[in-house]
Amino acid sequence: MFETVTIILGIAVGIALAVRLVMKFLNATRKRRVAPDVFFAKVKPLIEGARYEGRDIAGYPQLVGRYRGLPVRLHPVIDTLAIRKLPSLWLLATIPEPLPLKATFDLMMRPAGPTTFSNFDHLPATLDSIPDLPPHAVVRTDDPDHVLPHHVVASHLDVFQDPRAKELLITAKGVRLVWQLAEGDRVRYGIFRQADFGEIELDPLLVRDLLERLIALRQSILQWSRAL
Question: DSSP H helical segments within the chain, as ranges?
Answer without folding.
Answer: 2-40, 150-153, 186-192, 204-227
